[in-house]
Amino acid sequence: MAMKKAKRDQLAKRGYKITSAQEFLGLSDEEIAVIDLKINLINMLREARKATGVTQKQLARLMRSSQSRVAMLESGSSDASLELICRALFTLGISAKQLGKTISAIRAA
User: Does residue 97 sit in helix, strand or coil?
Assistant: First the structure.
């Protein structure tokens, strides 16, 4: 959510520096792109699982994993690898083409 200009100006007058998360954390454009990709794929996973009516426990069983691991994926844990997220999506029937569209949409942004 963007901060209102009046609030930004008020904080700047008080000596605060308003920056982006990327600048504050010192992240490169590539690192931000990977973060954006993970966020979009995690959202896709959560939506696909709910749309198919599959529970976290059922998805875990299909993936030969645990419910807590699926919950970790959906919560965006730093331990959630892109490989595991994609494996979960493939398990739910998401095609490589659908993943490709998601990835290309992020690259275009």
Answer: helix
Indicate the residue type of 53: G
CA angle at 79 for the pair 86 and 23, rounded to the nearest 5°: 100
Q: pTM here? A: 0.78
- What's 21-108's CATH class? mainly alpha
Whether 70 and 56 have beta carbons less than 8 Å apart is answered as yes
Write out pLDDT tens, residues 6-44. 888 888 888 888 888 888 889 998 898 888 899 999 999
Biggest alpha carbon distance in the chain? 56
Delimit the domains of the chain by residue range: 21-108
